[in-house]
């Protein structure tokens, strides 16, 4: 049962269609930025045309990450699953980011941009079938605390993140992790499909209504509530 997967939590989004045999499938990566709402469905059509098949399940990365990107990605996944009457599941984008490293049997410290001065951070290790297992739960970390965060465990993790989307943290991470391996990458829709597959085997039939992005901070609109802009 082919899985259509979407990942839109960072500045680099992706759409993938993964076939029944668990092969690498088809993947499209593209900038998110302001045009995501216009191009995401178009990219879904393109990846389906590349694969010459229709999905039978839908999966999506839930964040944390870009508020706008997540709203568009999760809403699109829910709309497609509802329209096509397909099972739907979501997974943490930090877990998705860790998955390729954890699959190699290593610890992964994952970072995603939150807002000025902060990042989302977590640490995962190999669990059952070398799937990510939470060692340090996701949290919002001040950039000046990153060096301390990396020493929370006894083992030294591989540093994972889309460093282009968090320039404030990139230099600090580079200094803090000088002796560690670094993987500069965004979470991939291909791994969204892999991690969501067990949940889709026994799907939550209400997910198309109940699934929501993982928001660990208030959005800019929420932070602006009650602010006097001097326009009255």
Descriptive keywords:
232 residues, alpha/beta, Nucleotidyltransferase, domain 5, 2 domains, five-stranded mixed β-sheet, 10 strands, 34% helix, disordered C terminus
Q: What report would you give on this structure?
A:
The protein folds into two domains: 3-92 and 187-218, Nucleotidyltransferase, domain 5, CATH 3.30.420; 94-184, Nucleotidyltransferase, domain 5 (2-Layer Sandwich), CATH 3.30.420. The longest helix has 18 residues, at 67-84. The strands form two sheets. A five-stranded mixed sheet has the order 3-2-1-4-5, sandwiched between helices. It has 232 residues and is α/β, with parallel strands linked by helices. It is built from eight helices and ten strands. Helix content is 34%, strand content 27%. The protein is globular. Mean pLDDT is 88; it is low at 219-232. The termini are far apart. β6 and β7 form a beta hairpin.
In short:
With 232 residues, the chain is an alpha/beta fold. It contains eight helices and ten strands.
Topology:
Blueprint: E1 3-7, E2 12-18, E3 26-31, H1 36-51, E4 57-61, H2 67-84, E5 88-91, H3 93-102, E6 108-115, E7 118-126, E8 132-142, H4 146-149, E9 158-161, H5 167-176, E10 182-184, H6 189-201, H7 207-210, H8 220-223
Helix pairs in contact: 1-2, 3-6
CATH homologous superfamily identity of the largest domain: ATPase, nucleotide binding domain
Number of structural domains: 2
Discrete helix count: 8
N-to-C SSE string, H for helix and E for strand: EEEHEHEHEEEHEHEHHH
Number of E strands: 10
Task: Choose one word for the global shape.
Answer: globular
Overall pLDDT score: 88
Give the termini distance in whole angstroms. 57 Å
What is the CATH architecture assignment of the largest domain?
Answer: 2-Layer Sandwich
**Strand percentage:** 25-35%
């Amino acid at each position: 049962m082919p899985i259509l997967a979407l990942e839109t939590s960072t500045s680099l989004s992706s759409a993938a269609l993964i076939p029944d045999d668990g092969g690498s499938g088809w993947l499209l990566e593209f900038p998110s930025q302001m045009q995501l709402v216009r191009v995401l469905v178009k990219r879904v059509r393109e990846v389906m045309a590349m694969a010459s098949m229709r999905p039978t399940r839908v999966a999506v990365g839930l964040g944390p990450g870009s508020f706008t990107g997540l709203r568009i990605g999760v809403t699109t996944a829910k709309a497609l699953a509802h329209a096509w009457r397909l099972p739907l599941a979501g997974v943490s984008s930090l877990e998705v980011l860790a998955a390729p490293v954890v699959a190699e049997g290593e610890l992964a410290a994952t970072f995603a941009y939150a807002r000025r001065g902060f990042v989302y951070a977590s640490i995962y290790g190999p669990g059952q079938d070398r799937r990510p297992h939470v060692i340090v739960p996701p949290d919002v970390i001040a950039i000046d605390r990153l060096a301390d965060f990396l020493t929370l465990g006894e083992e030294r993790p591989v540093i994972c993140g889309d460093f282009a989307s968090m320039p404030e943290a990139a230099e600090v991470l580079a200094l803090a992790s000088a002796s560690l391996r670094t993987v500069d990458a965004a979470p991939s829709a291909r791994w969204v499909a892999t991690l969501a597959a067990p949940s889709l085997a026994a799907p939550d039939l209400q997910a198309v209504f109940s699934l929501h992005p993982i928001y660990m901070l208030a959005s800019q609109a929420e932070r602006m509530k009650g602010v006097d802009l001097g326009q009255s």
